[in-house]
Design brief:
By secondary structure, this protein is α+β, with helices and mostly antiparallel strands. The protein is about 60% helix and about 5% strand. Keywords: Cell membrane, Membrane, Transmembrane, Transmembrane helix.
Length: about 725
């Protein structure tokens, strides 16, 4: 049979050889523009389409801000103007390419501020050229760098400070922030997992087999994701790209831990590694398949989202889980068979008929936990429930209304600094106007509303000052400048006020622009929460019913995981508001947290309850619960620590959203593993006894039979002399 294992390894080497390089190229097919992710029904999307029809080109503005706090001198203004005139001729990384070929038109004269301390230079970049590659970098990034380096060289030497901000500057800084996502993030995740596996296995060989399994799973996922994203079949963002790597490494390691632990168990009874693997593989297939199916279906529920970025994560993440599942159940078993018992060196398992169930009643930690649950089940779950509810009480304090674009970065970047300088000397919304699409006959009424709205200035009909507006199908564009920064919550409040006021002018008057796009993203995120969360819960419940052949057990597991999520978000609110002092959270943060915590967190309950059902067939329900808890405690806890550590790797990227997701998932997984799965679920299940399997119950042949271990037998091994609570349903 070794030749079958050898063929499987060779097949995976081929997959890794083709898919591995694509993992590093996923950034080539990723996009991070909010406007591209909004549904066609969004108000700002309709305005954007009209703007595109009104102008020949769609632009993305860089805003170059030049400042001297003591005041700009005539010599400064002349130097700035000379530099502006030379912008089109600036060379890029490829000397044959210049900045000018990517601009709508050469920039005009710099605009001085009223306080004479700063000047603003708008540079209109052609949006459809953003993904053009120049020496490995996108044109969007290359032009931003050329502007920054040239301005620093030409103007910085005379004491002027120069910053490049605006939408173009922010996107360029996002590219810098995500530039290491393929390498640094993956290396950090793999390094952390490797150290944990060394501690868990105490073997220098086995961790490499597990990590290679994870990498092959990621290669298989990239083999499918890359062409789909390249051809526009799915949307891949920088965030989805980073989460994909973390998901695959975490899931593949979890599945590997379960399979390896069961394989090691069987090696104590079987001389043949093939026979041991056959038994272990069959025993592990059901829980791993159910776990993978739960996560895949939960992620696919994200297809119901109105946001392209969230919708795109669904299939991207699902393909990653499929890759992890296939690699864990094909490549890893093949490696284990080829190397055999030696893979566990130096602690090589021998045929000694020592069973993991013998851990019950020992002084080991999980024997003690099982003893606690068995002696005082009701007290255990009531105290645990109250503690979780206390944490969940802080959930309403989570500020997920949205944050300014400048707050997305946790490190100081040029675009954020430039935005701050811009706000000091100009209306903060300069360069990112609010745009209103209205029938031509209502244009004057729209201008009057804009003039009467606080926080709005310089309204005008048309895109070009001093020129009559272009009419397209009887509609025109009216523009104005927001006093607040275009990416701020205050600016979004102004947009909401404008929309309410303009509704009185007519329902055919639509508000768009950068701020309106951000607002529509938030509204879509709030809608997604109401639609996707109930759908995911329903899907998970159905999977659990099919797996456990019960209704009560799935209800207990789903309720426990929802409570775990609520407690996690409550603790996260405390941490974000009072420990880390974050400015807020992205509206999609609770949804992402829910998907990962509930869809992934249910894995550990699945691993536990499938073993409970297996043990209960021969021992009875209550003894089966205690034995399953004792024998799975170590491997499931290890899996939870691995997954928490893997998601923590997201914190290496200086993006607020990813750091918050890293905290939520890491804390939530540990809470679920160490508290919910270890105390709450087994204690409630023990208290319910046989009723946990209602309405089907355990097969008659699996009921407690003469000669099998009873609950009294198990308690005899667990009991340390402390009194036990009685259960209302009697012995199992």
């Amino acid at each position: 049979m070794r030749w079958i294992a050898a063929l499987a390894v060779l097949a995976w080497l081929a997959i890794g050889g083709v898919g591995g390089p694509l993992v590093g190229r996923l950034s080539e097919v990723a996009t991070n523009d909010n406007a591209n992710f909004l549904p066609p029904s969004a108000e700002s999307t309709s305005v954007s389409k009209l703007v595109q029809r009104t102008t020949d080109t769609q632009t993305l503005p860089y805003l170059v801000v030049v400042e001297r706090t003591s005041g700009l001198t005539p010599a400064d203004l002349q130097a700035i103007q000379t530099w502006v005139a030379g912008i089109p001729d600036l060379k890029l990384a490829d000397p044959s390419r210049t900045v000018g070929e990517f601009l709508e038109a050469p920039p005009t004269a710099a605009i001085p501020s009223q306080d004479k301390q700063a000047a603003l230079v708008p540079v209109a970049f052609l949006a459809d050229q953003a993904e053009v590659t120049i020496k490995g970098d996108t044109a969007l990034y290359a032009v931003a760098q050329a502007l920054r380096e040239s301005a620093a060289s030409s103007l910085g030497s005379s004491g002027l400070t120069v910053h490049v901000t605006g939408a173009g500057g922010f996107f360029a800084d996002f590219i810098i922030a995500f530039s290491g996502i393929d390498g640094i993030l993956l290396l950090v995740a793999l390094g952390v997992v490797f150290l944990i596996l060394l501690i868990v296995y105490r073997s220098p060989i086995l961790p490499f087999a597990v990590l290679i399994t994870a990498m092959f799973g990621l290669s298989l996922a990239a083999l499918v994701v890359f062409p789909l994203a390249k051809n526009g079949a799915i949307s891949l963002s920088g965030q989805s790209q980073g989460i994909l790597s973390i998901l695959v490494v975490g899931a593949a390691t979890d599945y590997a831990l379960l399979l390896v632990a069961r394989f090691k168990e069987e090696l104590h009874d079987e001389e043949s590694t093939w026979a041991a693997m056959k038994t272990a593989w069959r025993a592990s297939l059901e829980p791993i398949a159910a776990s993978a199916a739960t996560v895949v279906l939960g992620l696919l529920c994200l297809r119901l989202s109105d946001l392209g970025s969230t919708k795109g994560l669904g299939p991207v993440g699902a393909l990653g889980i499929v890759g992890a599942f296939v690699a864990s159940l094909t490549f890893l078993p093949a490696v284990l068979l080829l190397i055999g018992r030696r893979i566990f060196w130096p602690q090589v398992p021998r045929v000694d008929h020592v069973h993991s169930a013998d851990a019950v009643g020992t002084r080991g930690i999980w024997g003690r936990v099982a003893g606690l649950v068995g002696r005082r089940p009701r007290r255990t779950w009531v105290i645990t429930l109250l503690a979780l509810l206390a944490c969940a009480a802080f959930l309403p304090t989570l500020n997920a209304r949205g944050i300014a674009q400048s707050d997305l970065f946790l490190t100081k970047v040029d675009s954020v600094t430039g935005q701050e300088v811009l706000a000091r000397h100009f209306p903060a919304g300069s360069g990112s106007p609010v745009q209103i699409a209205a029938p031509q006959a209502k244009a004057d009424a729209v201008v009057q509303v804009l003039e009467a709205t606080a926080g709005v200035s310089n309204p005008q009909a048309g895109l070009v000052p001093g020129q009559p507006p272009e009419v397209v199908d009887g509609q025109v564009i009216v523009q104005a400048t927001l006093d607040a920064a275009a990416d701020s919550v205050a600016a979004e409040d102004t947009i909401e006020t404008l929309r309410s006021s303009l509704d009185r002018v007519g329902s055919d008057v639509l508000v768009g622009g950068t701020t309106a796009t951000n607002l529509d993203v938030r509204l879509a995120s709030e809608r997604d929460l109401k639609v996707i969360i109930p759908t995911i819960l329903a899907v998970i419940f159905v999977v659990l019913v099919l797996l456990l052949r019960s209704i009560i057990a799935p209800l207990v597991l789903v309720a426990a995981n929802v409570l775990s999520f609520a407690a996690t978000m409550g603790v996260s609110a405390i941490a974000f508001n009072h420990v880390f002092d974050f400015p807020g959270s992205d509206p999609s943060t609770p949804l992402y947290g829910f998907v990962f915590l509930v869809a992934l967190g249910i894995d550990y309950s699945i691993f536990l309850m499938t073993r409970v059902r297996e043990e209960s067939r021969s021992r009875g329900t209550r003894p089966g619960i205690l034995v399953a808890l004792a024998v799975t405690g170590g491997v499931i806890t290890s899996a939870g620590i691995v997954l928490a550590s893997t998601f923590s790797a997201l914190a290496v990227l200086p993006i607020l959203f990813l750091v918050q997701i890293a905290f939520i998932v890491a804390f939530g997984v540990l809470l679920d593993t160490l508290v919910v799965r270890s105390l709450l679920v087994p204690a409630v299940s023990y208290d319910l006894g046989d009723r946990i399997w209602w309405p089907v119950g355990l097969p008659r042949a699996g009921r407690h039979e003469p000669g099998s271990e009873s609950v009294v037998d198990v308690h005899a091994r667990l009991d340390d002399g402390a009194p036990r609570e009685s259960s209302p349903s009697g012995p199992s």
